[in-house]
């Protein structure tokens, strides 16, 4: 019975996160540069969370690629994210901060949400529970594991088209 429970848990976890992987403590991030994610550069729009999503990614400059994210629901900004992917110690680190529609920060002043690089594939970049996928020059997917106040987690897909 325990073996059945164990495999049931593994099966459910695989359904929850099919396109993301978690960074395991004690491992190191692979070597990478901004050239590995330069294809993210541009203006992207899609739909998620019951609204319109927009991301704008700058080209590599100064060791980072800056991005902004906006979610608009019923004609009103729900929240923003501001962040970057930066080169650190021969690898990449994705960092971001959240802001409400009124630009009040969610994280403490000096805190960021950090995603360590886990692995690279030709058209996919896997950060800790956050994956960037290049479908074509005109389409990308982002997959993010999000949680709620009860500790439940699910993988959310954002499909974007180049603007």
A few lines on this structure:
The protein has one helix spanning 2-16, and strands at 42-48, 51-57, 64-73, 76-88, 91-100, 113-121, 124-127, 130-136, 139-147, 153-162. It is mainly β.
Can you give a write-up of this model?
It comes from Maribacter cobaltidurans. It holds the Pfam family DUF6265. InterPro entries: DUF6265. Residues 38-144 form the DUF6265 domain. This is DUF6265 domain-containing protein. The protein has one helix at 2-16; strands at 42-48, 51-57, 64-73, 76-88, 91-100, 113-121, 124-127, 130-136, 139-147, 153-162. It is 9% helix and 53% strand. Residues 1-15 have low confidence and may be disordered. A ten-stranded antiparallel β-barrel has the order 1-2-3-4-5-6-7-8-9-10. It is globular and about 40 Å long. It is mainly beta. The termini are far apart. It has one domain: Lipocalin.
Topology:
Layout: H1 2-16, E1 42-48, E2 51-57, E3 64-73, E4 76-88, E5 91-100, E6 113-121, E7 124-127, E8 130-136, E9 139-147, E10 153-162
Antiparallel strand pairs: 1-2, 1-10, 2-3, 3-4, 4-5, 5-6, 6-7, 7-8, 8-9, 9-10
What key attributes describe this structure?
163 residues; mainly beta; Lipocalin; 10-stranded antiparallel barrel; 10 strands; disordered N terminus
Q: Numbering strands along the chain, what is their spatial order in the largest sheet? A: 1-2-3-4-5-6-7-8-9-10
CATH architecture classification: Beta Barrel
Q: Would you give the CATH topology?
A: Lipocalin
**Portion in helices:** under 10%
Please identify the top-level CATH class: Mainly Beta
Q: How many structural domains in the coordinates?
A: 1
Q: Which percent band covers the strand fraction?
A: over 45%
């Amino acid at each position: 019975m325990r073996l059945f429970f164990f495999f049931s848990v593994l099966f459910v976890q695989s359904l929850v996160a099919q396109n993301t992987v978690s960074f395991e403590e004690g491992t190191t991030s692979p070597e990478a540069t901004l050239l590995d994610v330069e294809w993210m550069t541009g203006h992207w729009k899609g739909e998620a969370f019951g609204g319109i999503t927009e991301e704008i990614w700058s080209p590599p400059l100064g060791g980072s690629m800056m991005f902004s994210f906006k979610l608009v629901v019923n004609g009103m900004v729900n929240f923003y994210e501001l962040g970057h992917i930066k080169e650190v110690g021969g690898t990449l680190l994705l960092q971001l901060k959240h802001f409400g529609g009124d630009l009040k920060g969610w994280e403490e002043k000096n805190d960021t949400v950090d995603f360590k690089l886990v692995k690279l594939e030709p058209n996919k970049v896997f950060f800790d529970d956050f994956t960037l996928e290049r479908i074509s020059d005109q389409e990308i997917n982002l997959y993010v594991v999000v949680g709620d106040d009860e500790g439940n987690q699910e993988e959310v897909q954002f499909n974007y088209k180049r603007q």
